Amino acid sequence: MPDVFDEVHRRCRDGEPVALATVVATWQSAPQPPGAAMVVTTDGTVDGSVSGGCVEADLYERARRVLDTGRPELRRYGISDNDAYAVGLTCGGILDVFVERVDASALPALDAVAAARRDGHPAAVVTCVAADAGSRPAADAHDPPAAADHAGASDPARRLGRRLC
Question: Would you say 60 and 88 are in contact if contact means Cβ atoms under 8 Å apart?
């Protein structure tokens, strides 16, 4: 989120909610790693990227809905090598993207991160993302291979958490 943080912080400080779409898990050759982010503002401005393809078009519509409803969404975009170009991805692979509304209620955490960044200290805002025990994110194509399911690897929160620790 570093490349969209300033925009999220500024908009929230000005009292404007934004929708933040963050890659929370990837399998195979996804175009962006976990942590890649895209912001959609109430005026329709987009900043950042999660894939560079048609995934952004779908995420834009989802982000607008999340801004309106306040209900977050976890979405899986999966693509076989044969279908990679059909959805605008530059490569095959699977990515899970979490879309959430960020508003003034997040300002204390965002202010703390901004201060830490200004002082040259590492900081993070972490949102725990997990599907219900019996459900998985909605999929467009293939699920991740069974080999990626070891030690909770299929749980986006655990995969991202391991990268942060």
Answer: no
pLDDT of residue 133: 39
DSSP-derived secondary structure letter, 142: P
Lowest mean pLDDT among 6-10, 65-69, 72-76, 141-145: 141-145
Round to whole Å and give the CA distance between 53 and 51. Answer: 5
Give the separation between CA 57 and CA 79, rounded to whole angstroms: 16
The four Cα atoms 13, 17, 18, 21 give a dihedral, to 10 degrees, of: 110
CB 99 within 8 A of CB 64: no
Residue 146: C-alpha distances to residues 8, 64, 138, 143, 152 (Å): 36, 33, 17, 9, 11
How far apart CA 5 and CA 41 sit, in angstroms, is 13
Contact 24, 157 (CB under 8 A): yes
- Express as a percent the part of the chain with pLDDT over 90: 38
CB neighbours of residue 108 within 10 Å = 9
Average pLDDT score over residue span 60-74: 95
